[in-house]
Amino acid sequence: MESNTYVSQVITMTPAKRSISSKMASWVRENLLLVMTILGVVLGIAAGSLARTIHYTPDTVMLVSFPGEIMMRMLKMLILPLIISSIITGVAQLDASASGQMGSRALAYYFATTVFAAVTGIVSVTTIHPGSPTMLTHTTLDVTPLIDLDNKITTSDALLDIIRNMFPDNLVMASFSSTKTVYKKIRPPASRGNESSESLNETVKTSLEVEATVNDTLNEDKYERSLTSSEGTNVMGMIVFCVAFGSLIGRMPQGKLMVDFFIILNDVVMKMVELIMWYSPFGIMSLVIGQIMSIEDLRETAQMLGLYMLTVIAGLFVHAVITLPAIYFVITRKNPAVFFRGMVQAWITALGTGSSSATLPITFRCLEENNKIDKRVTRFVLPVGATINMDGTALYEAVGSIFIAQMYGIHLGPGQLLTVSLTSTLASIGAASIPSAGLVTMLLVLTAIGLPTEHASLIFAVDWILDRVRTSINVLGDAFGAGIVMHLCREELERMGPAQPSIEMLDKVECGMIPTHTPLAASPQLSPVSPMRGMPKDLMPLTDKGNGQLSWGHHPERSPTSETQI
């Protein structure tokens, strides 16, 4: 009997090694937008430096900066609908305990990192000591007040304004204005009493002397406190209203249709953000060129304030490279470098725009798509962080106030340094997330420690670049905070189920493209399906399950085992 022997041979196909050039080309294709943004910044610096060698007019600077102005207007246009839709949808998907824990942990993180930033700034400025009394005598820079130095606003006024803006009296007005305290100067008319003309004629010399003394006393400037409207969205008030609104409709069975509306609005806004992002490299390049061209005397500014700039940037570098990553690593035990890699696009955009609010749409995209942060966390944490978490601003105010004290030769004791730390922290919370807001709030810090404010405008010459650096640190602080809050709230998030799917996924469930028994379709976070579409006729609305969700099912007496959670 013959036996046939078969020999099998396994052929292993080893893929050909890719060359370095092909790997680089593949990486560039995958990160094309990031490469274009970095290239826009580099070209902007080069073109701006080259443009300074030729003669140009202010109109030329305006035209060069115009594309960047259009980009800023488009991004700011999306801030209000993005904040409203993101907070309402985020809070509506959280139960009371989860939203409370998430909010308390986020606020604790914000306050702690802001205090760390202020302390870092104090250590940096006292160590490097960039200020000197000789700077005021040798400077030729224009120190004309660029801000209202006669403003008598105190720290208590600023804190009361924050609380007032948290509860706006008109929601429509809050969308484009906020309330602030101002002091109006009052000069009462001089009074000469009831003296008769005869007595005045008899004692002309004496009366003139008395009148001069009385007029000097009566003509002293007096101020009256009043409330006025300030241009700009009252972000704090909108956040408080949206948190309350989202919390209520998330617990009302009838409110799920409105939640769907805000989900659609959020998706539409994010798609608009994607379109604007492809225009952002050109807009950022335009802003950088225009800003460099607008500097009057670059050499004098560098000689005068170079060490001050180095101090601020060094403090921000320490906070961004050591403090924030260390906090993130200690709490989450994850690599902060990997997390930062996913935030590069938002970080560069913040450098170009100088506004954490304008960068907010891109921050959402980087966190959710690159770092896989739960949407319920980003929608709740980021809008609040962009408003009150100002690590870079707190550090900048601490350095700036002590720098001015050094210019006047004033030594600050431990008590005054503590006051600087606390006041910088509180003032940064009240700083609006708009460009150069820290320069205005610095007056509060100077007033709190009794320093003169006449030369506060001196540092405005370099504020344009420091504003962008500290804004990028603010954005990083918000991002790391979202990652930390998600890690701390992971048990609550897992208990509530998957995050709310996009509106496209909801349509697939309703159309039957995704089976209703899958985890996604059966998630308690899924939006309700109308009983008129895709629901059996014998289903009826049932009471909620204790988690604020509407349930559709059979009557308990008829079919106690059949129920569909929506």
TrEMBL record:
One of its GO terms (cellular component) is plasma membrane. Keywords: Glycoprotein, Membrane, Symport, Transmembrane, Transmembrane helix, Transport. Pfam families: SDF. InterPro entries: DAACS (IPR050746), Na-dicarboxylate_symporter (IPR001991), Na-dicarboxylate_symporter_CS (IPR018107), Na:dicarbo_symporter_sf (IPR036458). Signal peptide: none annotated. The chain crosses the membrane at residues 32-54, 74-94, 106-128, 235-254, 275-295, 307-331. It is a multi-pass membrane protein. It is found in: Membrane. GO terms for molecular function: glutamate:sodium symporter activity; L-glutamate transmembrane transporter activity; neutral L-amino acid transmembrane transporter activity. Residues 533-566 are annotated as: Disordered. PROSITE patterns: NA_DICARBOXYL_SYMP_1, NA_DICARBOXYL_SYMP_2. It comes from the Eukaryota. Belongs to the dicarboxylate/amino acid:cation symporter (DAACS) (TC 2.A.23) family. This is Amino acid transporter. It comes from Cherax quadricarinatus (Australian red claw crayfish).
